[in-house]
Amino acid sequence: MLVAFVLSLRVFNEFDVWIFLKTGRIIFEQQKIPLTDTFSMLAKGREWTHVKWGYSLMAYMFTECFKSPSSIVILQGLVSAAIVFVSYLSLKILRPDFEFSLFSSILVLLCLGGMEYRFLARPEMISHFFTALYLSLFLKGLHGHKQLIWVLLPLQVLWANMHDAFVVGWVMGFLFLGGALIQRVFQQKTIAVQMLLMPLLLPFCSCLSVLGFDALSYPFNLLSQLSVNQFTPELFSFTSPEYWMKKEPFIMLGLTAHFLISWGRDETKNPVSILCVIAFMILGLRSYRNIAFFMPVVLPCALAILPPKNTKYLMLDRLVSLLLIIGVYGLVTTNNYYKIVKSKESYGLGYSALTTPIALAEYMRKNKISSEVFSDYISSAYLLYALDQDFESYLDLRDLDVFTPEEFKAYHYLMTHPEVFTYQLKQKGVQFVALYLGDFLALHAHLMKSSVWQMMYIDHNMVLYKKAMIKGHPPKINTKGVKHYQSALEIGVLKCFSPWYTQETPLVDVSKRLDQFFKLTQYDSAITH
C-alpha cells in the first residue's frame, strides 16, 4: 500500500484535470450541475452532460483543503493504496490461508508497475477503485455473504455520477453471473437471487445520474466515441505499433500467462477468476489505457492460486521480500524508478511551470486580459482554471463529450493554415492569441510577420499576441527560471514519506530556448533587446 501511495505522488502534469477543478468550483459555488457549455467559443450554449461531475466536485473540495490544486495527486495516492487494500480483501476471500512470499511480492509490484502509468489523478482512478471493490463484493456474495451484494446498487449510482466507465460494473455483473451458472452446472452450487438480479438492476441504477435513462444506451455511445477518437494515443489498441512501445502490455501478457498456467494446475479451478481475467485482458488489448483496469482484477486471482510457501526458507524469504519492497520504495522516492522505465513523470508534489502556462496566466491577470482570447487546445485548460469566467477556450480537452470529430478536424486545419486562422479569428472578434511556443511554428511565423498582429508577451513555453494595426512596444520577455510550484503542506507530506527529498528543478536554458524559437520562426529578435 505504501509503494502504491508514493507511486502516485508525482509532479502534476495533467492538463484536463484543470477543467475538472474549474467545473467543481462552479458546482460548489452555484450548487448545481452545469447542463450547457459555458467554457468555449465553439460550443457555447450547447448541451453538455457532465457525467464526471461527482469527481469534479470531490477533486475541487479536496484541493481546497490543501489550498493547492496539485494536491489532487494525494487523493490519487489514497485511492491507489485503497485499491491494494481491497485487492488484499479479495485475496483473503479466495484463499483465507494465504501468506505473502517473495514471489507474491514480485507479483504485487509487477501489478503496480503495470498500473502506475494511470496514477494521474484523473477521474478514471474512481473506476479503477470501483473495479477492485466490485470484485471483492461479488466474491463475498459467491462465498456466502449474499446480502452484501445489495451494496452494489447504491455504489452503482455513485459510480455513474463519477466516471463514464461505470459500464464496467455492468460487465462484472454478467461475468459473475456466468461464473455462478458454471458453478451451478459443474459444482452443484446454488445461485443467489441477488446474483441473478444484479446484471439487470445495475444498469437501471445507473439511470439515477445526470444521464437519466440515456445511461442504458451510454455504452453504445461510448464505443462510438472511442471508434472515431483518433486524437488520443492512450486509446490505441494492440493493432497499433505505438501500443507496444510501453512496458504495460508486456506486464499484462506476462501476468495473464502466469495466471493461466497456475489456473490449469489448480484443482479447484474457480471459473469466475478465469472469466474476469480473460475479459479484462481483452479490454486491455482494445485500448492502452484500459490495461490499468486489468491489474486490480488479475492481482487477487493470480495470488490466490500460487503454490504454498516453502517454510524451509521462511526467514530468508521474508527478509528478501522486505528488502525488495524497501528497494522499490527507495527507487520511487529518489526518482530513479522513473529514470529506469524512461517515464516523463517525477516523484514530488506541486505543478511545473515547464508545462503549465502559470506565468502567462499571471501576466494576463495583471493586464486584465481575459476575454476575446484564442488559446490552443492544450494551454486553454489551465487558463480556464486560472482566469475569471470571461475567458473562453476555442476547443478544449473535454473532447467528444462536447465537440464533434468534424470540429477537431477543422481545428487541425485551422492551426496548419495561417490565412484561414486569421480569417476565422476576425469572424470571432478575437483580440488576443495565446499559443504554445514549442508547436505551431508556421502559425507563429505568420502572426509575427503580420501587419495586424503583434507579439505582446513571451516566456519559455507560451507566446501572447495582440491585435494591433500600429506596432507598439517590444514584447515583454520573461526569462525567469522554471520551477515546481509547491505549498508548504505539500513539501511536508513529501518529507514525511521521504526525508531525503529535495526538489529537482527542471534544467531549461530559457534564453537558448527563446533564441531557437526566434530562429525557427525567422523573427528579428534584435527588436526585443
Describe it:
With 529 residues, this protein is mainly α. Helices cover 54% and strands 5% of the residues. It contains 22 helices and seven strands. The protein has helices at 2-8, 17-30, 53-66, 72-94, 102-115, 124-142, 152-160, 167-187, 193-206, 218-228, 248-265, 271-286, 291-304, 314-333, 336-340, 358-366, 380-386, 405-416, 418-428, 441-449, 488-497, 510-520, and strands spanning 351-352, 373-375, 432-436, 453-458, 462-467, 476-477, 484-485. The strands form two sheets. The protein has a five-stranded mixed β-sheet, covered by helices on one side. Strands 1-7 form a two-stranded antiparallel sheet. Helix 2 packs parallel to helix 17 and helix 5 packs parallel to helix 14. The longest helix has 23 residues, at 72-94.
β-strand percent reads under 5%
| Estimated radius of gyration | 26 Å
Read across the widest sheet, the strand sequence of neighbours is 2-3-5-4-6
Helix content: 40-55%
- Specify the structural class: mainly alpha
Reported for the largest beta sheet, the result is: 5 strands, mixed
User: What best-fitting shape do the alpha-carbon axes yield?
Assistant: globular
Number of helices: 22
How many beta strands in the DSSP annotation? 7
Given as residue ranges, the uncertain stretches (5+ residues, pLDDT < 50) are: none
Tell me the span between the first and last alpha carbons. 54 Å
Q: How would you spell out the order of helices and strands?
A: HHHHHHHHHHHHHHHEHEHHHEHEEEEHH
